[in-house]
Specification:
13-stranded mixed beta sheet, flat, Cathepsin D, subunit A, domain 1, alpha+beta
């Protein structure tokens, strides 16, 4: 039986349908199919909405201003570039400290930058200039509430302390593995990592995050300025009462000995190691804390409160249990989006986002070499 296709033909001024036999007219049928296909393509191109055929454009990435850093006992030292009153630049080694609220300059640098004459402090980072008013800058280290740079960092020629308050307008990223501190504008796509809300004190720049231990949440300040994590001794004592195997040493040792001075709240402190804690969906393993000892004596501290922490947390967003230092942050790429009150946590080089890198080969062990006072059952010490 002969198959037929249909086309239009003109008859007496009106179209009529006539069958087209594709066996008798193969060329005509092929031409008809080709014309139909081309017409359909033209109709699609003109009728389809533009967003259906155009590739969506991703927002341009924000420029990154990066400052390389080195570590001294876990504390971040950056080569800062300051702007002088005549428009020149002055480089200086600076301590980046997220646990203090005001910039501090050595006396000579304070005058060289014209801050003593009312000029604002200007820090250059890539194409950005970060600024603090002259009234907000502390003149000279070693004074009341200002650390002595030589005591803390000698022989490194540290001349400045830079707080987080200088970076509140953007996103701050710390990458310990690459030794890089970077700042970007807070727009575009969010960075990689597990998103965890943070509380921020806009006056000081101190940011705190909820840390979960044994199912309980505790607010800790994120403090990359410290080489070690500290916390209230009373809270750590409560943890150790339930888990005595977490106890590791008596007295501040190694990087925990932050001030390197004869202070009771360090000497009479206790180091405990928490096997597992979590920040959002990220698990950190074997994080050690120094639980500080009493400052005014056990009985007096019990009556008047925890003098050190109650005073220090005045710059925090609210009451806090302690701070997270470099021993908790060193295997993390951390971004804090200050304007949007969000942080992003990513294990640096880990196979999964929930793993903590433990750079220890099978069959090896690392133990602390020095104890100030031994414990009854010290166990493997903090690495």
């Amino acid at each position: 039986m002969t198959k037929a296709r249909f086309t239009l033909a003109a008859s007496e001024g009106r179209p009529r349908v006539v069958p087209v036999n594709h066996e008798r007219f193969p060329m005509a049928c092929w031409l008809l199919r080709w014309i139909s296909t081309m017409l359909a393509g033209v109709v699609f191109l003109f009728a389809a909405p533009s967003n259906a055929i155009s590739k969506p454009q991703r927002p341009a990435p924000s420029p990154v201003a990066a400052m390389p850093f080195t570590l001294d006992a876990g504390r971040i030292l950056v080569e800062a570039t300051f702007q002088t009153p005549d428009g020149g630049i002055r480089k200086a080694l600076a301590w980046f400290n997220m646990g203090m609220k005001a910039p501090i300059l050595a006396k000579a640098l304070y005058r060289e930058l014209g801050v003593d004459r009312g000029a604002p402090l200007r820090l250059r980072a890539g194409d950005m200039t970060l600024e603090a008013s002259a009234e907000a800058v502390v003149d000279g280290d070693g004074g009341l509430g200002a650390p002595d740079f030589a005591q803390y960092f000698g022989p490194h020629p540290v001349e400045a302390m830079l707080p987080a308050s200088l970076f509140l307008a953007g996103r701050l990223t710390l990458d310990y593995k690459r030794g890089r501190l970077s700042i970007t504008r807070a727009n575009g796509e969010p960075p990689a990592g597990i998103a965890v809300p943070v509380a921020v004190n806009p006056a000081s720049g101190l940011a705190s995050v909820e840390v979960t231990v044994n199912g309980q949440n505790y607010p800790f300040v994120i403090d990359a300025g410290s080489g070690y994590s500290w916390m209230r001794g009373s809270i750590l004592a409560h943890w150790l009462a339930d888990r005595p195997d977490w106890r590791r040493a008596e007295g501040a040792i190694g990087a925990a000995n932050y001030n390197m001075l004869d202070l009771d709240f360090e000497k009479r402190g206790t180091i405990g190691r928490v096997p597992s804690l979590s920040i959002g969906g990220l698990e950190l393993k074997n994080i050690a804390f120094l639980g500080t000892g009493p400052i005014l004596g056990g009985y007096i501290d019990a009556m008047v409160g925890d003098f050190f922490w109650d005073n220090w947390q005045k710059s925090a967003p609210g009451p806090v249990v302690g701070w997270l230092g470099a021993n908790a942050l060193k295997d993390i790429v951390l971004t804090i989006d200050y304007p949007n009150r969000m942080s992003y946590w990513r294990a640096n080089g880990a196979p999964t986002a929930r793993s903590r890198l433990r750079r220890r080969h099978p069959g090896t062990a690392r133990r602390t070499l020095f104890y100030r006072r031994s414990c009854k059952n010290p166990g493997p010490a903090v690495s």
